[in-house]
Amino acid sequence: MRTTRLHVDRERCIGAGMCALTAPEVFDQDDEDGRVLLLNPEPPAAQRAAAQMAAGVCPSGAITLHEPELGGS
Ligand code: SF4
């Protein structure tokens, strides 16, 4: 089964909050510094599209997705 793994770079995050708005089940923002908190690094299929969209809208490029290779073991 393919699993998407998410990674966030809190050093790059500028606290714009687009990720938490786009995929609130996957991302949140720190109450203290406003930076991203990753709630679920391996989102289920139902949340994957939103997580991908969040990575696309993040203005600082702090969110990366790692898709397993097709056909890999
Ligand atoms: S959208 Fe990007 S910059 Fe904004 S809070 Fe999320 S990770 Fe940080």
From TrEMBL:
PROSITE patterns on file: 4FE4S_FER_2
Keyword flag Transport: yes
Matches recorded under InterPro entries: 3Fe4S_ferredoxin (IPR001080), 4Fe4S_Fe-S-bd (IPR017896), Fe-S_cluster_ET (IPR051269)
Pfam families linked: Fer4_13
4Fe-4S ferredoxin-type domain: residues covered: 4-32
Gene3D superfamilies per the UniProt record, alphabetical: 3.30.70.20
UniProt cross-references to PANTHER family, sorted A to Z: FERREDOXIN
Annotated function: Ferredoxins are iron-sulfur proteins that transfer electrons in a wide variety of metabolic reactions.
Protein name in the entry: Ferredoxin
